Amino acid sequence: MTSEQDIASLTIKDILLSDHGFSQTDESFEGNPIFSNGRNAKVITTNRDMIHCDHLETHFDSEVFIFCSRHRAESGKPALLVHSTGNLGSEALFGGTPHHLSVSAPSLVSVALKKLFEERNKTGLDEFDVSLEVTHHGPTIMKTPLLFVELGSSEEYWTHQGGAKAVAAAAMDCVNEPLSGDAVIGFGGTHYASKFNKIVLEKGYKIGHMAPKYAINGLTSDVLNQMITHSTNPIVSAIIDWKGMNAENKTHILPMLEDANIEVIRAKNA
Hints:
Elements: E1 2-3, H1 7-19, E2 23-29, E3 32-36, E4 42-43, E5 45-46, E6 65-72, E7 79-83, E8 86-87, E9 100-101, H2 106-122, E10 129-132, E11 146-153, H3 155-158, H4 161-175, E12 183-187, H5 194-203, E13 207-211, H6 213-216, H7 221-229, E14 235-240, H8 247-259, E15 263-266
Helix pairs in contact: 1-4, 2-4
């Protein structure tokens, strides 16, 4: 998925079309040509901001939607990012509905993170941070799994060719990765989930939805259940960033995980 409203997305789209074997079809969506690689993937362009694309299932019967998107941050720090989507709490400021999570694709999130790191290191993108982000923003209500792979974090970098090539490569690795294997969910830490980066990159975990420290006390049992069930991969454990949580967080979430019969593993022991 790409968007006419997103400079980074269009930069990534150009790379997908030029470098990854996509050709124009006779199909279109919202007036924009659809491109196919002739095998298992299409490049589709919407006129909407992608966080408001809960309508895609009425047009496409897809196995997964991979959103190639910009990332915006006040720091402006160049970044390559990947995450699942959803609103963990009562606000839905950036698309979707409150207290509702999309279907995560842990095996794809994890392979995308690995590819972004590989591309960063292989092509000398030393100024770029590479990270998972916790679950946030829309779309939230589709039953089709989805993930966002992002190029950030300011307009200067939304047209960065090397960064766009890294995101395109990660998206294509997702296309070829099976939706299989056991997975985990994560709790604690900051919006940029450094502890969870480590368990994916060094320990090979596949990770779905993640709730940061600032969202834990507002988690309901229903949202926790969605973290567990809205996943293409079976969720077998919860990884806890123990030092990235306070006592109130632990008092709130640990009994809920016990009630859900989910194994709890401290990140340092993962």
